[in-house]
Design goal:
Length: 351
Amino acid sequence: MAAGISMQGTLDSVDRRLLDVLQREVPLVRSPFIEIGRQTGISESEVLDRLRALSGAPPAPIRQISAIFDSKALGYQSCLVAAIVSPEKIDDAAAIISRHPGVSHNYRREHAYNLWFTLAVPPDSKLGLAGTVDRLSRMVNAQQMRLMPALKLYKIGVKFDLGGDAEVATSPDRAPAVQNPVPLSESDKAVVRVLQQHLPLEPKPFDYWAGEIGMSVDDLLAAARRFISLGVMRRFSAVLRHREIGMSANAMGVWIVPLEQQDAFGQIAAQNPAVSHCYARPTYPDWPYSVFTMVHGKTREQCEQALAGISAASGIDYIALYSTVEYKKIRVKYFVGDIYEWESAHAGSLT
């Protein structure tokens, strides 16, 4: 069998090396799978055979191989949102919220704030971010819905060490922080639309996309590299399904950190390899937690060990909000018009 994934979803050592490489970076070159094969010690054809077996619907571990864009750099408004919903109605509420195409992640968590989702809207949204959250809140009869925008970023980079020995770095995303939207031409937006798709698993995958938008492959790849240099794209890589690679637990550790200690705490938390995201976020009268850290592990015990280690190093206490149901996890599609359609469909409701 070309790929090592079994019916039980186990991965052989070559698969692990391959996934270690892919989740960090897919080279923006015309024949990327040759370079990936060099890094993993296999041929281009075996890389492609394995990727075809490792991609697709669950239990395949690869969710998507594509560009990971910075919403703010594209002019989109995005935000984490926390909601309190009646437990007996939470599944129905989650289904309504998940139907918004700008919702990329939607989880049930163990807390009074029991429904957490991320939302992005385009720069010319009729409702805007706050208006959309207000509309969703009324649609699901939420008891409370809070916007939790990122006030400061200390770390972002969801990359899991699968135990491979590939020649890869373990640093967070390298794109610079973007303070303001980057002006994009219509040609740039066309490039965004193709780069956010799942990479064709063919020897020269970017040729397909270049032909789709009537651009030379050299110009397409140059545009992608420019997006990285400007911070529009954080990286081009694989996004993995946590549970399918054995990372079945994740906790959102939230911390009450005095403002004058936030930067020092953020640096301590960011150094922990179990932390994929670390942000400062706003507080509310019923929500005193100012810093959020996402940690991942094979078990809850591993997550607790990571959070306890950060607490011991910083002297700051925390609570852990574990996800119990994943209602939705996708990548938002930029510049495709689906959010405008949702807004039009709901323009007359609940006014």
